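If your schedule permits, I should be very grateful for your opinion on a structural question. I have a record of one protein: its chain in single-letter code and its fold written as discrete structure tokens. Kindly check, if you would, that the fold set down in the tokens agrees with what the sequence suggests. I remain grateful for any guidance, and I place the record below:

***
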Amino acid sequence: MRENRLRTMWQNDQAVVNGWLAIPNSFSAEVMAQQGWDSVTVDMQHGLIDEGDMLPMLQAISTTSAVPIVRVPWLEPGVLMKALDAGAYGVICPMINTREDAQKLVAWTHYAPMGTRSFGPIRASIYGGPDYPEKANQTIVTFAMIETAQALDNLDSILSVEGLDAIYIGPSDLSLSLGCKPVFDDVEPKAAEAMAHILARAKHHGVVAGVHNGRPDVARARVAQGFRFVTLGSDARLLALGSQDLLKAMKG
């Protein structure tokens, strides 16, 4: 089966630098993936992407060595299984708030006897290889998003669920849930303390911790802190920032 470079990098204590796709277009996905990201995530939650867009975007990412990931819209078995059957090598699921949520996530992303994922890797076996059915459970990476006060209350019970590989902090939603301003980078002290606590407990349980960022200086600092999966911006954000820089240079 094709190697999942996320697992290899984490075994070597390396941080994965992840690109983010919000624009529903296979060409922009290909352009992003060609730039050298370790992984690229198709965002079906807040991106403008539906299931019909997802497949050609995963195919575009597959022209590179970047690991294809999908953030699904919600904790729902059908969309999780569709993303994996289409060839995602990792799935990020939002709003995992309880141990039961985490158990469902693991079950729906793993084949029996570990889980209840329905068998039908129609494109996944093309991308992953003919031995995909035997090795998928040990290759696919499952992320639970920790982004609410409720998830903080249940953190250890979530992190102790067998088969959960990683957690992913959404700083904006976590901040909102804690009564703070929703930002990626310069989070308020209460949110920063919560993020440090999540990271420490994830390390204790042997679960990889990831986080969404807006600026590279913040992402580098979080890697130094111990995060091993960091997202920087998005295709839409990079397009806007690049255009702004050019226009400032011209009009200035």
